[in-house]
Amino acid sequence: MFPPVLPNPDNISSGFESSDYVGRFAPSPTGPLHEGSLLCALASYLDAKAHNGQWLLRIEDLDPPREIPGADRLIIESLRAHGLLWDGTVVYQSDRLHAYQEALDTLQQLELVYRCICRRADLALSGGAYPGHCRESNHDGSAPHALRLKVGNFVAGFTDGIQGPIREPLPDSCGDFIIRRKDLLFSYQLAVSVDDGAQNISHVVRGIDLMESTGRQIYTLQTLGYTPPAYAHIPVLVDQNGDKLSKQTGATAIDNSQAIHNLMTALERLQQPQPPKSERGSAQSILQFAAHHWSLPSRAAFIKL
Ligand code: GLU
Ligand code: ZN
Q1: In the beta sheet, which residues pair with residue 25?
Q2: How far apart (Å, rounded) are the C-alpha atoms in residues 182 and 28?
Q3: Which ligand is nearest to the CA of 120?
Q4: What mean pLDDT value characterizes the chain?
Q5: Relative to the alpha carbon of 132, which ligand is closest?
Q6: Is residue 61 in contact with ligand 1, taking CB distance under 6 Å?
Q7: Is the CB–ligand 1 distance for residue 67 below 6 Å?
Q8: CA 282 to CA 288: how far, in whole Å?
Q9: Which ligand neighbours the alpha carbon of 216 most closely?
Q10: Which of 20, 64, 86, 187 would suit a FRET pair with 285, their CA atoms being 20 to 30 Å apart?
Q11: Is 203's C-beta closer than 6 angstroms to any atom of ligand 1?
Q12: Residue 133 CA, ligand 2 centroid: distance in Å
């Protein structure tokens, strides 16, 4: 069992009391749902339902080299088996290329975009943030190039619903970042910002591994004229070696025939009260109880398997 949930003094003004709540789960189809991604799905679902909000499902299939054919179907099947039913139709990012192109056009009109021909190996030498090598170079586009978004002196500030107040000066954390890759794919940062904006997402609940992307997304959303959502980043699930459970490291698929057990385990990991025996008959009754008793988990670096 987890220790009792301690009040987090930082989350008072996190914006998590909204009534026009629209949340989402946005998996990349790089593998089936595993215990770690179930935790994220469940947390964002319960937060939405606890606020009588909508919960949308968006498949982030913008990076074919990393995807596994059919993984979207497996994820959807697992969500269904666990009673995690989304509102509206499933959105596929691969159907939204026009929207990303439009956003790119807008950013270009604002003169915030430039070509970058740097190779990864060159940048590795300079470490973390992109130092802006190509910003003033005006590359003519004849060589393969990525497109970067100028961040100026932007400082992203937000109060994470779990992690508390965050201040991230983009020039130090990442610098001008890629919005279209050298292989002509739109970047995750651009697509997720465009979609969160266009879908009126008010609340994002996701794994803390994505917290380092939040500043870039807030910047992109604001630059495109959207109000950024409220964010809450839940601790990630790590294995016995302390490594994050992920599809890339071969985390095994969740067993759909054990939905009740899986949900009970996930609730415990999220520091939620356990539904009494009488409420454990079905995934639906567990979720109903859990949404009714939901509160965001307290801050922790990670959750051990
Ligand atoms: N598609 C991303 C992933 O599966 C998550 C996107 C998000 O929640 O912002 O890692
Ligand atoms: Zn460059």
Answers
A1: 57
A2: 20
A3: 2
A4: 91
A5: 2
A6: no
A7: no
A8: 10
A9: 1
A10: 20
A11: no
A12: 5
The stretch 186-209 carries a mean pLDDT of 97
pLDDT value for 210: 96
Residue pLDDT, tens place only, 88-102: 999 999 999 999 999
56 lines ligand 1 (CB under 6 A): no
Q: Candidates 60, 209, 247: which one to mutate for ligand 1, based on the most atoms within 8 Å of Cβ?
A: 60
Q: How many Cβ atoms are within 10 Å of 151's Cβ, its own excluded?
A: 25
Write the DSSP assignment of the chain as a string of letters: -PPPPPP-GGGTTSSTT-SS-EEEE---SSS--BHHHHHHHHHHHHHHHHTT-EEEEEE----GGG--TTHHHHHHHHHHHTT-PPSSPPEEGGG-HHHHHHHHHHHHHTT-EEEE---HHHHHHH-SSB--TTTTT---SSS--EEEE--TT-EEEEEETTTEEEEEEHHHHTBSEEEE-TTSPBPHHHHHHHHHHHTT--EEEEEGGGHHHHHHHHHHHHHTTPPPPEEEEEPEEE-TTSPBP-TTTTPPBP-GGGHHHHHHHHHHHTTPPPPPGGG-SSHHHHHHHHHHT--PPPP-SEEE-
Distance of CA 179 to the CA centre of its chain: 17
Which atom of ligand 1 lies at the shortest distance from residue 24's CA? 8
Q: How close is the Cα of 209 to the center of ligand 1, in Å? A: 10
Sort 299 into a burial class: Cβ within 10 Å, 0-12 / 13-18 / 19+.
middle
Give the pTM.
0.91
User: Cα(201)–Cα(206) distance, rounded to whole angstroms?
Assistant: 13
